[in-house]
């Protein structure tokens, strides 16, 4: 009777593993929304816990069959063979569910990381847009133009590492058919805004550099003229002080 019950327990265990495999490993999942992906992750976590909890039952079965084999070798030997099959199948099921759970957790982590990088780069784009707008109505002063140019250039020196991460993470998920529509839409919107603002910022940078160069050249010319007029003023003053007749002066002084 004990052998019959153990045989029944082995059969039930094998049936449960078959059902678990069909439910957790053979279903085709489509992750078209973050909610679907998150639910799948939580489901696989529960599946892993459920499968691992059966380890106690498997151990009890194993101990009982070993004990029976010492008392009734013939019955125990047959059950031991069935037990080995169940143990192999159980270990395989555990490994596969662990693997799928790990994969889904990695995918979810990848999605969260992508959102974080998008948030960082969106904040940078907002800052870039603000700096570009600030260069729209500048006073016609060299210091103001120079400060605006330096401020814009400091934002433009933003490293490209985050954009590289966005591209790689997005492509990884899209290649796996995970959230591909949502990610493609997000990346398209981000890239379009990035290209537009970057082009506008570089164009404004060039304009400010040219404006600054022109103002510096004008300032230099005014400085040279002012120095020349100062020299001339001092020379004319010396002529007047020395009461030199106008006709005795050089032509340019006359």
TrEMBL record:
| InterPro entries found in the cross-reference section | Spectrin/alpha-actinin, Spectrin_repeat
The record ties this protein, via Pfam families, to:
Spectrin
> Which spans of this chain does the record mark as coiled coil?
3-64
The yes or no answer to whether the keyword Coiled coil is present is yes
Q: List the keywords (alphabetical).
A: Coiled coil
SUPFAM superfamilies, alphabetized:
Spectrin repeat
Gene3D superfamilies, A to Z: 1.20.58.60
Protein's recorded name: UTRO protein
User: Which species expresses this protein natively?
Assistant: Notiomystis cincta
């Amino acid at each position: 009777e004990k052998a019959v019950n153990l045989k029944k327990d082995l059969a039930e265990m094998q049936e449960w593993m078959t059902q678990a495999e069909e439910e957790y490993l053979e279903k085709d999942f489509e992750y078209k929304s973050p909610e679907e992906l998150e639910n799948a992750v939580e489901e696989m976590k529960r599946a892993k816990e459920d499968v691992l909890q059966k380890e106690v039952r498997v151990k009890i079965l194993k101990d009982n069959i070993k004990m029976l084999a010492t008392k009734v070798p013939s019955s125990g030997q047959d059950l031991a063979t069935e037990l080995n099959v169940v143990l192999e199948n159980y270990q395989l099921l555990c490994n596969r569910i662990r693997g799928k759970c790990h994969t889904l957790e990695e995918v979810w982590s990848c999605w969260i990381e992508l959102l974080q990088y998008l948030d960082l780069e969106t904040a940078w784009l907002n800052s870039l847009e603000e700096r570009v707008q600030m260069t729209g109505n500048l006073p016609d002063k060299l210091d103001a133009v120079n400060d605006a140019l330096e401020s814009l250039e400091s934002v433009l020196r933003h490293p490209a590492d985050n954009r590289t991460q966005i591209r790689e993470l997005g492509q990884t998920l899209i290649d796996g058919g995970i959230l591909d529509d949502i990610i493609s839409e997000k990346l398209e919107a981000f890239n379009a805004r990035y290209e537009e603002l970057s082009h506008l910022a570089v164009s404004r940078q060039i304009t400010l550099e040219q404006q600054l160069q022109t103002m510096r050249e004008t300032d230099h010319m005014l400085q040279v003229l002012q120095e020349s007029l100062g020299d001339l003023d001092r020379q004319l003053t010396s002529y007047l002080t020395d009461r030199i007749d106008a006709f005795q002066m050089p032509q340019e002084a006359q």
